[in-house]
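SEQUENCE-TO-STRUCTURE ENTRY
===========================

Subject: a protein chain together with a token-level encoding of how that chain folds.

Sequence line: the amino acid chain in single-letter code, read from start to end.

Question of interest: how does this chain fold, as expressed in backbone structure tokens?
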Amino acid sequence: MDWECCWSREEIAADACPYIGEGEEDLYGSQRRRVVEKCVECPRFKNDLARMKAEGHPLSDLLPYILAEFQEQKSQMGAMLSFLNSKTREIKFLREVSLVLQTSIDIDEVLSVAMTAITAGKGFGMNRAFLLMTDKERRNIKGYLGVGPRDYEEAWRTWEDISRSNFTLKELAKNFQKTKLTSEKVKFHDILEQLTVPLADQGHIFNRALQGKKPILVENALNNPDLDRGLARILGVDCFLVMPLISRNRRVGIIIADNCITHKPITLQDMQSLETFAFPVAFALERASLYDRLQEEVTKLKLANQKLFEQQALIVKMEKMALVGKITSSIAHSIRNPLMVIGGFARTLLKASAEDDEKRSYLESIVREARQLETVLSEVLDYSESLFPVMDFWDLNELVSATLADLSEGIEQAGVVLVSELSPDLPMVKIDYKQIGYCIKTIVSTALSHLAPGGELRVASQKDASGVLLVITDTGPPMSEEDQESLTAPFFQTQEMGAGVGLSLCRTILERQGSSLTLAASPAGGNTYQIKLLTRKESI
């Protein structure tokens, strides 16, 4: 019989079947495959079946049942094959993602992988996802990160970029972390702020999902009596999935996923796949969070150890200073009485001597040197004794002006040019007026000892971020670091004063009052002495 369809022929010519397309040329020589893949659906084959029925062919009544069963089996096999392919892709995808989640301790990397996997077409393909995490106090669950487009135009640009890049899921996650993570945190800030929910609110859908440890698919959200309509308005969708993140019975957070752009229904398979994915995400987030907290504790411990080291160094320094203080105090007390006797007798003899007495110059020298030794002894005793400063609020500019006025005669005799640059409107500083005045006087005197006639001494006050600065600068030869260190050590040798404790005592006084003294030399010439005084608000 001359059939319209080619099902009865073992081999056919290229033009015998119009339904065999490009790339299917092997069907020309395979009757079995051609019948299964093409002829069953071919209109010509259906015409042949109608002819067989009309001619009373004995198989005409049986063939429709066989073909119907075949098509049903074929459809089921196709659905099963599609399901298996989907599961194969899902397993491959979960393995790829899990490798990163199991090894990463960087919370940003974990977030990038997890959120990219949920929203990327090569992953679960949801349009948008929000991550909510429990706070450190475990009182609230708060919006942390949102990922996805806000409108169709942005979605289209993103999908085009992804199609052109042809990245793997892992590469997409890395690129997201590098280029988009920071901006995505800001993009959905308005929505995330409104997603904070107390963990004590057991009736809220977020807490119901956490308590039940099961995902909740919300449909018809705007008319759902079991759902707060405000949540649907915030998200702007009528269908979304709430996925709890649980790790070892610990409530880590919530993932909210939706298809706000395509409005594609969220299927049971989508929900099951995301549920499988939720556990490694929860575990990775918990581990990364714990690592961050560990790093914070390590940093605190390092700071505490550093502080302890500084305190130990200070204790050693104070012990050395205490020993020096005991020795110097003992020596000073032993010298003071004989010195007072010598000075007293010298002054008495000087008063009784005539103006033209040739011995008068010797007596004046004895009186002058005795007075200088008394000053050094006073410094030694001040250094060795524990003095408690009398603190009050003072105007630093007024103190500086008064001190410079007292030293004006010595500055004039030294032939040094004094430049005063006191900044107005300085805040009051809480200091011991007498002790800080002594420090300023000592520093100016030290600077004068380095200056030749014609040199310049500049005194400036200015406001600092955390207090007030007094900067004293000279144009003398720059001191070496060794000289700077020596200058603040007890009994530094100077040409004018001999051995003394002036700047060392100043540093001690300032440190007692919470202030500081620093020295610096410029290679171009000159030295800078800087006093930093902290401002304190008066207690009410």
